[in-house]
Amino acid sequence: MENIEFNVGIDKLSFFVPNYFVDMTDLALARAVDPAKFHIGIGQDEMAVNPATQDIITFATSAAAQILSDEDKKQVDMVIVATESSVDESKAAAVVVHGLLGIQPFARSIEMKEACYAATAGLVLARDYVTLHQEKKVLVIATDIAKYGLNSGGEPTQGAGAVALLVTANPSILKLNADNVALTQDIYDFWRPTGQAYPSVDGKFSNSVYINAFSQVWDEYCRRYDATFSEFSAIAFHTPYTKMGKKALLPKIESENETIQKHLMDQFEKGIVYNRRVGNLYTGSLYLSLISLLENSELLTAGDKIGLFSYGSGTVAEFFSAQLVPGYEKHLRKAEHEALLNQRVRLSIEAYEAMFESKIDLNHNDSFDDPTLYSISEIKENHRLYRTK
């Protein structure tokens, strides 16, 4: 099967995380765990934490606001929000984000769900839509809050934040190839029934399902496109914790020569620099890793082919590729992203636990004084009102 060629892809991209984090050494000591279990065992150094006045809508709006110009807002024809942390069972978060951003009114706004995978479905929809409407743009946002409960097994793999991707014709950063291979399996490795506060997780089983899913979609990708690892300059992975992608990649490249193995593993490390400091973004984890790779690798050049592995428990997995556009490095936001991470407030464990337990009661009218640019300012008549600039 031949790869279909067209020039549509990611023109702009950015991420946002809340202004608070927990150091994983602090968390390990508080939980009577060897810090090496967190730093080395799962590969996490910091974990993003959000106050109750910030949610998936404020994250999504903040991430997108960094990259959208006034002209973009006039041309965006669709807003897609991917999340598994929805704040409403009916109204799409994208509708609220659309309004907060001031995007032109004649746009379609939808929310998509399939665990951590949905942003990839949104990206494919955006690519195909722009292919048919070359003058239009589509905003895809992955936004989530990963919470498992205090003192739970999943606690060190929590996180919060959003990634925004602007999809256009003649993109400035990445051209998306039409070589996607998807896999669906009805498996309960991670799930959260409606009304259940935290997910149910079969941790070891989920790890094995992830590894097996990558193996299956990679083998099928190779069968369809006669592909080899040697043609990829890097592969970015969905990253619930940073060791996960490594566990999937290593068995598949063990038969490759040492040069290919070392190159792909070195690039993998560049793709988890930001993830180590943020934690799990669910739908945004793959795309945070992509940003980390682009902004931290010193080996990538225009024309390089990058593989992307997307995974959502339950399960849907997908492998696809993209190619770097000449001059892509001029459109990255490394300085801004590093400043965002470096300026956050390190929480004590007591402050983190208090923030974790803090909730907003939608049935009680209230106002809040969170100075963050986008935050919940008021609860009125059972709905959230947001502060904007």
From TrEMBL:
Residue span, Hydroxymethylglutaryl-coenzyme A synthase N-terminal domain: 7-169
One Gene Ontology term from the biological process aspect of the record: acetyl-CoA metabolic process
Binding site for (3S)-3-hydroxy-3-methylglutaryl-CoA: 34, 247, 280
InterPro entries reported for this sequence: HMG_CoA_synt_C_dom, HMG_CoA_synth_N, HMG_CoA_synthase_prok, Thiolase-like
Molecular functions (GO terms): hydroxymethylglutaryl-CoA synthase activity
Active site: 84 (proton donor/acceptor), 116 (acyl-thioester intermediate), 238 (proton donor/acceptor)
UniProt cross-references to SUPFAM superfamilies, sorted A to Z: Thiolase-like
Source organism, top-level taxon: Bacteria
A Pfam family it matches: HMG_CoA_synt_C
UniProt key word Transferase: yes
Keywords assigned by UniProt, alphabetized: Transferase
UniProt: substrate binding residues: 148, 153
Matches recorded under Gene3D superfamilies: 3.40.47.10
Residue stretches making up the Hydroxymethylglutaryl-coenzyme A synthase C-terminal domain: 185-249, 267-369
Similarity comment: Belongs to the thiolase-like superfamily. HMG-CoA synthase family.
Name under which the protein is recorded: Hydroxymethylglutaryl-CoA synthase
